[in-house]
């Protein structure tokens, strides 16, 4: 298979993990994998990136492609440098925040970072204000930069497909994984040029995303996203959504393709985990990036309620965060903790190497996941958290994809803004912990298994493409 994805090892982003893992299941089915990804091939991998590469199955080939900024962006950067020189400023040019719905390669020009996103139903043109026009410009630039990357992918894909194995045509399909969702447009174009079947793997919704970053919140984004999404879906032999809610929404938009749109969740791995090292301190932990709209303020408020009610000390109770923790709703996490009066109970730290992050999670009594305002997506971290012998507190709305996944398990699912509900969970689990009752992992059955999800994917590929059905099929956990 030829995979086109911005995120793939050596990239250590969470989005790279899905196909890093699926590569092993492809190998079990007798399928090789060539990957075109967003990377400067001249940049050597660091230690963390090298470790990701070492975990790939033998024979995976990776081709790095970068694209120069589009012409207008280069002109804008030049103008900005001249303006800085005239004003005597040393501040960098503003930059467009990554959008989980459509983010492309880092745009050459980027809008001032906005701490909030806007619900789709509230988005208006706003062309009577400069901000409205700038949103249109940043949206156009975001898409244009992505198309420019796709233009660079096309000749590389041509060479890779033509080379094949010993000069013979070897590839059975072009597969894309996004976001960035314009990777699907690049894959569609490659599939049309090479006359290969096209498979579209959507790790998040595209045109039917629920919210947009403020800088891209314009109807122009919706028009362009729907146009490119429709072209890709119509060309695809198989469209993959990673939650059941996303799958249903896509089937509703493209009812004539309903039978070719399936759900393949990320799933939980079965790799060995470190043993917990728990003392008497009850630790509520979160590992990973605090994304746009995933605001743990209600968690802090709930913790303050429990601390005051039970008279707890920092030696008995604490919240620990590691990862990208720059800001929450525009305020640094430490400031939020100060505002709630629990700064001494909160520990923060940077991202850690994989083994250390796993130990951090294993040591927690409660692992927190946050869906924010995203109803249809399941945070990838959820499938990691449910592997540990820890209680899971999912801050997600009722009826969300996360709540549906965890329904009927021991996980606690509470609305992200429900401080009272979160406090009830924290108090109940603290009392259990203090009485000597310890948690067991949520992922107890096959529906959570990455192996089971991989079986769904590769069986569907075998049915449609006539390939990938050989060898021993992955067994259930």
Question: What secondary-structure arrangement, pairings included, does this model have?
Answer:
Blueprint: E1 2-4, H1 17-28, E2 34-38, H2 47-54, E3 61-65, H3 71-87, E4 117-119, H4 130-163, E5 174-178, H5 182-194, E6 198-202, E7 211-213, H6 219-235, E8 238-241, H7 244-253, E9 261-263, E10 282-287, H8 297-310, E11 317-322, H9 333-339, E12 346-349, H10 354-362, E13 366-370, H11 381-385, E14 391-395, H12 401-406, E15 412-414, H13 419-434, H14 450-465
Parallel strand pairs: 1-2, 1-5, 2-3, 5-6, 6-8, 8-9, 10-11, 10-13, 11-12, 13-14, 14-15
Antiparallel strand pairs: 4-7
Offer a few descriptive terms:
single chain, alpha/beta, Rossmann fold, 14 helices, disordered C terminus
The amount of beta strand, in percent, is 5-15%
User: Number of folding domains?
Assistant: 2
State the helicity in percent bands. 25-40%
Number of helical runs?
14
Alpha-carbon Rg, integer: 23 Å
CATH fold naming of the largest domain? Rossmann fold
Terminal Cα span: 26 Å
Question: Averaged pLDDT, please?
Answer: 87
The strands making up the biggest β-sheet line up spatially as 3-2-1-5-6-8-9
């Amino acid at each position: 298979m030829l995979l086109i994805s911005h995120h793939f090892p050596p990239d250590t982003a969470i989005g790279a993990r899905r196909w890093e893992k699926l590569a092993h299941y492809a190998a079990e089915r007798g399928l090789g994998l060539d990957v075109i990804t967003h990377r400067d091939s001249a940049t050597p991998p660091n230690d963390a990136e090298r470790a990701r590469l070492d975990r790939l199955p033998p024979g995976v080939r990776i081709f790095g492609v970068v694209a120069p900024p589009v012409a207008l962006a280069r002109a804008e950067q030049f103008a900005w440098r001249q303006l800085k020189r005239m004003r005597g400023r040393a501040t960098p040019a503003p930059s467009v925040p990554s959008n989980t719905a459509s983010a492309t390669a880092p745009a050459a020009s980027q809008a001032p970072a906005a701490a909030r996103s806007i619900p789709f139903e509230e988005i208006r043109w706003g062309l009577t204000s400069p901000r409205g026009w700038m949103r249109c410009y940043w949206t156009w630039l975001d898409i244009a930069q992505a198309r420019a990357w796709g233009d660079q992918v096309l000749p590389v894909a041509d060479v890779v497909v033509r080379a094949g194995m010993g000069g013979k045509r070897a590839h059975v399909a072009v597969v894309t994984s996004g976001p960035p969702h314009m990777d699907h447009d690049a894959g569609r174009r490659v599939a049309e040029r090479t006359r290969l079947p096209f498979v579209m793997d959507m790790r998040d919704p595209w045109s039917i995303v629920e919210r947009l970053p403020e800088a891209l919140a314009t109807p122009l984004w919706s028009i362009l996203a729907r146009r490119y999404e429709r072209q890709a879906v119509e060309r695809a032999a198989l469209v993959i959504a990673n939650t059941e809610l996303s799958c249903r929404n896509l089937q509703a938009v493209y009812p004539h393709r309903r039978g070719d749109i399936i759900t393949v969740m990320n799933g939980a791995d079965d790799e060995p985990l470190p043993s917990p090292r728990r003392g008497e301190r009850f630790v509520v932990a979160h590992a990973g990036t605090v994304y746009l709209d995933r605001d743990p303020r209600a968690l802090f408020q709930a913790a303050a309620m429990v601390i005051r009610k039970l008279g707890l000390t920092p030696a008995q109770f604490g919240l620990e965060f590691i990862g990208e923790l720059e800001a929450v709703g525009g305020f640094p996490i430490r400031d939020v903790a100060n505002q709630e009066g629990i700064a001494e109970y909160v520990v923060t730290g940077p991202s850690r190497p994989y083994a250390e992050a796993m130990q951090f999670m294993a040591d927690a009594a409660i692992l927190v996941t946050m869906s924010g305002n995203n109803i249809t997506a399941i945070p990838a971290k959820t499938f990691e958290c449910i592997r540990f012998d820890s209680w899971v507190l999912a801050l997600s709305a009722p009826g969300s994809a996360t709540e549906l996944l965890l329904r009927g398990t021991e996980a606690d699912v509470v609305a992200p803004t429900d401080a009272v509900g979160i406090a009830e969970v924290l108090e109940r689990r603290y009392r259990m912990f203090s009485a000597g009752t310890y948690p067991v992992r949520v992922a107890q059955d096959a529906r959570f298994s990455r192996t089971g999800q991989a079986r769904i994917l590769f069986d569907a590929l075998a049915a449609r493409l006539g390939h990938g059905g050989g060898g021993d099929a992955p067994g259930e956990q």
